[in-house]
């Protein structure tokens, strides 16, 4: 799934999630941009239990705030890391396929 964000044509501020106006200057002329899908984990937590049946089978899993190189922060799942492993500061990339419950799924960038 492609991550889309907005960029204000007046002040170049980048916005996610989608808004009706720029959150910096208030302008309404916002262009849609596509992310390259690369970023750094800002914060993360491990979900160990879940009340909904479709998620229970997947616990534990990592949920993170990722600062995209494109200048916006998103909430996503991170796969390919052990729950409890240090992921803050890790370089990650969008990975496919996403699913209906987790539209943005990232995994560590391996050099």
Structure commentary:
The protein is 4% helix and 40% strand. It has one helix spanning 53-56; strands at residues 4-8, 14-15, 30-34, 38-47, 61-68, 73-78, 91-94, 105-108. Strand 5 and strand 6 form a beta hairpin. The longest helix is centred in the middle third of the chain and has 4 residues, at 53-56. It is elongated and about 45 Å long.
Structural descriptors:
111 residues, mainly beta, OB fold (Dihydrolipoamide Acetyltransferase, E2P), 3-stranded antiparallel beta sheet, 1 helix, 4% helix
Number of helices: 1
**Uncertain stretches of 5 or more adjacent residues:** none
- Structural class determined from secondary elements: mainly beta
Question: What order do the helices and strands follow?
Answer: EEEEHEEEE
As for the CATH topology of the largest domain, it is: OB fold (Dihydrolipoamide Acetyltransferase, E2P)
Note the main sheet: 5 strands, mixed, barrel
Helix content: under 10%
Strand ordering within the main sheet: 4-5-6-8-7
Q: How far apart are the first and last residues' alpha carbons, in Å?
A: 23 Å
Number of domains: 2
What's the short story on this structure?
The chain has 111 residues and is mainly beta. The chain has one helix at residues 53-56; strands spanning 4-8, 14-15, 30-34, 38-47, 61-68, 73-78, 91-94, 105-108.
């Amino acid at each position: 799934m492609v991550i889309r964000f907005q960029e204000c044509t007046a002040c170049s501020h980048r916005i996610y999630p989608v808004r009706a106006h720029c959150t910096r200057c208030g302008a309404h002329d916002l262009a849609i941009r596509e992310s390259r899908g690369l970023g750094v984990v800002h914060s993360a937590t491990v979900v160990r239990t879940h009340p909904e049946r479709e998620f229970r089978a997947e616990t534990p899993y990592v949920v993170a705030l990722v600062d995209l190189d494109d200048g916006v922060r998103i909430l996503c799942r991170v796969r390919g890391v052990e729950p409890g492993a240090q992921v803050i500061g890790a370089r990650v990339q969008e990975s496919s396929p996403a699913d209906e419950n987790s539209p943005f799924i990232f995994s560590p960038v391996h050099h």
